[in-house]
Design goal:
Elements (H helix, E strand, L loop, with lengths): L8 E6 L7 H20 L8 E6 L5 H14 L4 E4 L3 H13 L3 E4 L12 E3 L8 H11 L3 E7 L2 H16 L3 E8 L6 H13 L3 E5 L2 H13 L9 E3 L4 H7 L8 E4 L8 H14 L7 H20 L4 H8 L3 E4 L2 E5 L6 E2 L3 E5 L5 E6 L20 H4 L1
Parallel strand pairs: 1-2, 1-3, 3-4, 4-5, 6-7, 6-8, 8-9, 9-10
Antiparallel strand pairs: 10-14, 11-12, 12-13, 14-15
Helix pairs in contact: 1-10, 2-3, 4-5, 6-7, 7-8, 10-11
GO molecular function, one term: amide binding
Protein name: Amino acid ABC substrate-binding protein
GO biological process, one term: amino acid transport
Length: 382
């Protein structure tokens, strides 16, 4: 195969180092780099090292598409680790299908997708929104305000979350969307709407630089975060460090990984992460998922024996491994992962206090085909 001609396994890395989502995508890059370095230090895969070919799409959907085409066509790369937002994944998906490549996608997302050319390593909404909806209603109240960036992930996630809240007797008291990259006046106006609506909690799917502005302005507006917290699926440790922990304590994250998880695997991961990227580096669900998917790929490549996307794709199915977030499994029916749901509350140091977690890995349900909104409860998940 072309990807093996120089006595190495060449793979693509397509995450943004610049643009509106550069903080979270830089986390993806760090997790990817750490995993590859560890694999290479242990002898590589079948005696050959992984060699990344990396480009910066600058958080621009057109650039993701063009660079994926360059990787799969001109660079003759078969496997790409990349994309963070659903907008970037949707831009790349037809290119990956046309070239019969394989994309490893590490972000939590809105679901309602299946592609044999993708391994979905992030959480689905049944692994995040379901326990979060129950937690907000039980601990904060029934009046929820929805705010998001204006693209597919926020709109679909908010739709599902709104249905969950209403199915359990809650109420949506507002729903507003901001163009990607919005800051300043536009964000301040949304914060004013929230302040006037006085919800019990806010569900935010605002991402990137808009989210950074939103959390800062929410704090500056003097809204009581204990009484009216912002709950998110994305505002993890590295972004809190970027915004400033003083602006974010008390806010809520529903995710499958938190840096504070107490397990030998996570302690080793966090120590290696800080040794590689500095003592101030924060591991997050963004970096950890990117790290895990590289290890899943290396295991599948060893079983497949060649850089054949179809063979690697089949070798992934059903694989189980221990990771920093716990036991995971590649679901053979959906190509998503069995993951353990968790909820954390941001502390003054910018890390999360684990306040709830499921009893073990939960089957992904990207189409919400088997999930019953009315019956889900935190007690059933424990």
């Amino acid at each position: 195969m072309a990807a093996r001609t120089e006595k190495s396994w060449r793979v693509g890395v397509l995450f943004s180092r610049s643009g509106t989502t550069h903080v979270t995508e830089s986390d993806h890059i760090r997790g990817t780099e750490l995993a590859m370095e560890q694999i290479n230090a242990s002898g590589g895969v079948l005696g050959l090292p992984l060699r990344p070919v990396s480009y910066d799409p600058a958080a621009d959907a057109a650039q993701y598409r063009a660079l994926a085409r360059r990787m799969l066509g001109e660079d003759e790369i078969d496997v790409i680790f990349g994309c963070s937002t659903s907008a970037s994944r949707k831009a790349v998906l037809p290119i990956v299908e046309r070239h019969n490549g394989l994309l490893f996608y590490p972000s939590m997302y809105e679901g309602f997708e299946y592609c044999e050319n993708i391994l979905y390593a992030g959480a689905t909404l049944n692994q995040t929104c379901l326990p979060l909806a129950e937690y907000l209603l039980a601990h904060h109240g029934r009046r929820i305000f929805f705010v998001g960036s204006d693209y597919i992930y926020p709109r679909e996630s908010n739709r599902v979350m709104r249905d969950l809240i209403e199915a359990k007797g809650g109420e949506a008291v507002g729903e507003v969307y901001l163009p990607l990259g919005s800051t300043g006046t536009a964000v301040a106006e949304v914060v004013d709407q929230i302040r006037l609506a006085r919800p019990d909690a806010v569900f935010s799917t605002v991402v990137g630089t808009s989210a950074h502005a939103f959390y800062r302005l929410y704090d500056e507006a003097g809204i009581d975060r204990a009484a009216q917290p912002v709950a998110s699926l994305t505002m993890a440790e590295s972004e809190i460090a970027h915004i400033g922990p003083r602006h974010c304590s008390g806010h809520i994250l529903a995710a499958t990984y938190l840096q504070t998880l107490d397990s030998p695997e996570n302690h080793r991961f966090v120590a290696a992460y800080k040794a590689r990227f500095g003592d101030d580096a924060r591991a997050s669900v963004w970096s950890e998922a990117a790290y895990v998917q590289v290890h899943l790929f290396a295991r599948a490549l060893a079983r497949a024996g060649s850089m054949d996307p179809a063979r690697i794709g089949r070798a992934l199915l059903g694989d189980e491994m221990q990771t920093p977030e716990g036991a995971i499994r590649v679901d053979p029916d959906t190509r998503h992962l069995w993951l353990t749901p968790r909820i954390g509350v941001a502390r003054a140091d910018g890390l999360f206090e684990l306040v709830w977690q499921g009893g073990g890995p939960t089957r992904p349900d990207p189409y919400l085909a088997t999930t019953r909104f009315e019956e889900a409860s935190l007690e059933e998940w424990a």
